[in-house]
């Protein structure tokens, strides 16, 4: 056995690793870009809510690859579709038609109630696409002078780390050292309708893009009615309302889409992550003709966007969520989980918040110990979660989690807090 010393600005913890785990981590350290600081666990397989490391230790996955594995690890129906479609046709590019894309586009259009879909791969690509569509709509439909359109975002948003995404961010760790930034972006306070009313008075504003619940910021839930007010403000000022549902969508918050809870219909909806059940990158942008048809052939696209394998997986991924009652389970188990967390008697829990199986536990930093240290303790006990910010742990298990597993998770978290 070897000792792995994890060093960061937050903590130093000694973790005992096997030879197999040490070898895997060393290979990453030697040959990979050092742009992540993962927990020192090396996973080798998964099934449902559980994952196993290279030494066959079992863990309860309470992160779901940042909500990409909503359907559970290696769901058999998704693996069946993966096998069948991959043996038939995987990629054609958009130079040619394929027999799956039209079926997928019809499925998505009817499922979510929009005229059209633009298929992409990653969440950041889809968000970037939404911003491009908003700008083009502003010039072609709203009549904004060329190259002057502005798009508004909320402080502490997160939709990726591309140049456009970090230009729309106020996160120093994403921005520092990567300027100059893309112009035409404005930031306002999240959950602040007065700030939105003020900024959209500028006739050059094309759109407001917002997460229904802010994920990376720490599962920040806005006031009831916030999205309704946002929708109305945007309508009143001829500004597009865009919801980034990449992380909150597809059952995560107990609704098929998080914004359904407030009965709003955004002008553009962005989906990703769980759209493939965690098997491959699949994302999508939904909008009506007035917006989507402003983009002409050759003006936007992706080699892999809309590939037949992604099309088949996405349709099955959504069907599985609905047919296996995962969305309802998310709502029920989420309430149970937060109730359990709130029942833990610990001076270090500042608050618990969330919706569905999207939960944050805000903890009080203790001397040199932070949420990262608590995640390490949970890992040793067989539960995987990851901190966001310095003092928040985000819990987002697969939507197939059951009552017994929720109670087990609460018990492990309570034990870790006693040792914190």
Q: What is this structure's SSE topology?
A:
Elements: E1 2-7, E2 12-17, H1 19-31, E3 43-47, E4 50-53, E5 58-61, H2 64-67, H3 76-86, H4 101-112, E6 116-120, H5 123-142, E7 150-154, H6 163-167, H7 172-175, E8 185-188, H8 193-199, E9 205-210, H9 226-236, E10 240-244, E11 268-271, E12 283-287, H10 289-292, H11 308-323, H12 326-343, E13 349-355, E14 358-363, H13 371-381, E15 383-384, E16 386-388, E17 392-395, H14 403-419
Helix pairs in contact: 3-11, 4-11, 12-14, 13-14
Description of the molecule:
Its EC number is 2.6.1.13. It comes from Spongospora subterranea. Keywords: Aminotransferase, Pyridoxal phosphate, Transferase. With 420 residues, the protein is an alpha/beta fold. The protein folds into two domains: 39-68 and 325-419, Aspartate Aminotransferase, domain 1 (Alpha-Beta Complex); 76-323, Aspartate Aminotransferase, domain 2 (3-Layer(aba) Sandwich). The protein is 36% helix and 19% strand. The chain is built from 14 helices and 17 strands. The strands form four sheets. It has a seven-stranded mixed sheet, with helices on both faces. The protein has a four-stranded mixed sheet with strand order 3-4-5-15. It has a four-stranded antiparallel sheet with strand order 13-14-17-16. A hairpin with a 4-residue loop joins strand 1 (2-7) and strand 2. Helix 3 (76-86) packs antiparallel against helix 11, helix 4 (101-112) packs parallel to helix 11 and helix 12 (326-343) runs parallel beside helix 14 (403-419). The protein is globular, with a radius of gyration of 22 Å.
